[in-house]
Specification:
By secondary structure, the chain is of the alpha+beta class. The protein contains 2 helices and 4 strands, in the order E-E-H-H-E-E. It is 31% helix and 38% strand.
Length: 121
Amino acid sequence: MGIEDFGSGQTQSDVLVVTTNDIPGYRVDRVLGEVFGLTVRSRNIGSQIGAGLKSMIGGELKGLTKTLVQTRNQAMERLVEQARARGANAVLAFRFDVTEAADVGTEVCAYGTAVVISPQQ
């Protein structure tokens, strides 16, 4: 597995997503409000058994890591879709929230503030 299997983040998009509250060189023209992308993934019994065995001897649980990266990327894609649908070209204060969902899976929520930005003159 290469680094791309474990990396995350934004691919080329018309909506810029940042974790900061502002973007150097840009001004916020309009705040459109909170946007989020949500996904819930159930646990795979095979990977759970493998993870249980691996946890006894130690080391990274690569299958679970890859699944979490894919899940976060899906949540982020949904956030970008929602921001775009509201007319935003950026999302500020981007964050992830990860919780257990009723003991059957993992809920991943990507959230932030949708804004319209323009370059400062």
